[in-house]
Amino acid sequence: MRGKKIQSDKNQNNKFEIKSLTPSEIVRELNKYIVGQDAAKKAVAIALRNRWRRQKVKENLREEILPNNIILIGPTGVGKTEIARRLARLANAPFLKVEASKYTEVGYVGRDVESMIREITDIAVNMVKAEKMEEVREKAQQLADERILDILLEPIKRVREPLPIPSEVETQIDTSKEQPKKSAREFYREKLIKGELDDTIIEFEVQADSSGPVMQILGPFGPDDLGVNLQEILGNVLPKKTKKRKMTIKEARNYFREEESKKLIDMDAIIKEAIFRVENTGIIFIDEIDKIAGPPSKVGPDVSREGVQRDLLPIVEGSTVNTKYGPVRSDHILFIASGAFHVSKPSDLIPELQGRFPIRVELHSLTEEDFVKILTLPENALIKQYTALLKSEGVEIEFEEDAIREIAKTAAEVNEQVENIGARRLHTILTILLEDILYGVPDQISEKQIRITKEMVQQKLSSIVKNRDLSKYIL
Question: Are residues 459 and 469 in contact, defined by beta-carbon separation less than 8 angstroms?
């Protein structure tokens, strides 16, 4: 799947990459990790492809094309969050998951809805910064090695155990016509690269960490909530302190490489590109939106419901939020909301907010057949995970097909009788089923091959499943 370079808006100089995945390719990639829920996969695939299509539209119309935000409706554990997270990875886009119930109306103590834009901007800056540092990694490592060689070979040694200069190494280059002999610097550079000096301890000065606890001089709001970068403001005012540190050359190479990488990258360009990515490819997943839906309170102010919805409305609709990196617009951020909507329903949201989420997709509860597929098909399937964990101890574990079906049947029964928590029930059941094996390996169980049969599953789980009071606490 190829990525294409897309020229950004006229006011931006940077380029960014949107993968030109077709909707069917996106669904195929999601199928590797998520079982079923075809309607939801189709909806998010179209939304992601529309982002790529928007970049192909003429500039005068591009700003007018707004994303179709989505509400995913369904019980917990059916794949709502995983769909959004995998979608963001496919697009290489900044992604943030928030819970709607954590926010409160402006004027009350709690998280402000604008903080979600600041958080996703932080994520984008770190993402772009990591990419740029990886690009200069080789150059930074060369510069780091030169700094270590300076420490090793300077007149006043800062090496705990002074390095001997071999007799066959000339410190001065021969001026005759013959080939010059290897210098001490070249000699130790070779040993450094080969890792032969990794355990040697050196001492050097580093900048002391001046970051301390932030005083609550602004009430319940921190500097990030107000879009203020105190470190940048005070950086030139406070004196820079240094301290001496001792570490091995192996640790020092990594430390200096990080320092040199930061010097080689342009933070202004990184921030500019990060903001551009947030504004054009950012995805914010708002979980538990049903918790802020419902009829208005008849007793006192309803801080956690309609007030939060009204604060959320301008963010989803499109507004400019001040962050410590500068103003960020939310007009073209894709918002995906989700909720079980057991007690409330989507129509309980205020009409204005309903209009900002025009696409609604219902996710169905998982069946016994779905559980069988979840256990075996995805690339990160639970059985594959436990197999890999035990293989690290030299133990081969094999699940018979009947055993897998019995596990799936048990999960479906418990979800139906106790509480429907979707695929998360499989984690509980497998942990209880394999508890003795995971505890006994490697010192108490000497077997190198273990087979999980249907009878073993029934023996371990049947008594718990039959006792409903017990299953409520254990399963």
Answer: no
Same domain, 121 and 172: no
Give yes or no: residues 238 and 220 share one domain: yes
Closest CA to 409 of 368, 359, 367, 469: 368
Question: Within 10 Å of residue 111's Cβ, how many Cβ atoms?
Answer: 17
**In the listed set 264, 282, 311, which residue is the last one of a domain according to the structure?**
264
Instruction: Evaluate whether residue 231 is within a structural domain.
Output: yes
Radius of gyration of the CA atoms of the chain, in A? 29
Which tokens belong to 391? Answer: 């293989």
Q: Which are the contacts of 408, defined by CB distance < 8 A and separation ≥ 6?
A: 368, 369, 371, 372, 375, 426
Can you say whether the dihedral through the CA atoms of 250, 253, 255, 258 is positive or negative?
negative
Structural tokens at position 150 = 């300076």
Residue 142, domain member (yes or no): no
Query: Which residue is it, tokens 């090793």?
Result: 152
Q: What separation, in Å, do the N-terminal and C-terminal C-alpha atoms of the chain show?
A: 42
Which H helix or E strand runs over 122?
helix 115-135
User: What residues make up the domain containing 247?
Assistant: 148-264
Q: Which residue, 341, 362, 383, sits at the end of a domain?
A: 362
Q: Which uninterrupted H or E stretch holds 369?
A: helix 368-376
Q: CA 44 to CA 69: how far, in whole Å? A: 9
State the angle between helix axes of 249-264 and 115-135 in degrees (0 to 180), rounded to the nearest 10. Answer: 110
pLDDT value of residue 81: 87
Q: Which helix (H) or strand (E) holds 404?
A: helix 401-417
Domain with residue 423: its CATH number is: 1.10.8.60
Whole-angstrom distance, CA of residue 108 vs CA of residue 116: 17
Whether residue 232 sits in one domain with residue 331: no
Neighbour count for residue 210 (Cβ, 10 Å) = 12
In a domain, 143, yes or no: no
Q: Tell me, what CATH number does 307's domain have?
A: 3.40.50.300
Is residue 238 domain-resident?
A: yes
The DSSP element (H or E) to which 283 belongs, if any, is strand 283-287
Per the CB < 8 A criterion, the answer to whether 207 and 240 are in contact is yes
How are beta strands 359-362 and 70-73 bridged, if at all? parallel
Split the chain (475 residues) into runs of 10 and give each run's mean pLDDT: 38 52 91 90 92 87 90 90 88 89 73 91 94 91 88 61 55 43 77 85 75 48 54 59 83 90 92 93 91 67 72 92 94 92 86 91 91 90 92 91 92 86 89 90 85 91 78 75
Beta strands in 174-233 (DSSP E): 201-207
Supply 402's token pair. Answer: 């009947």
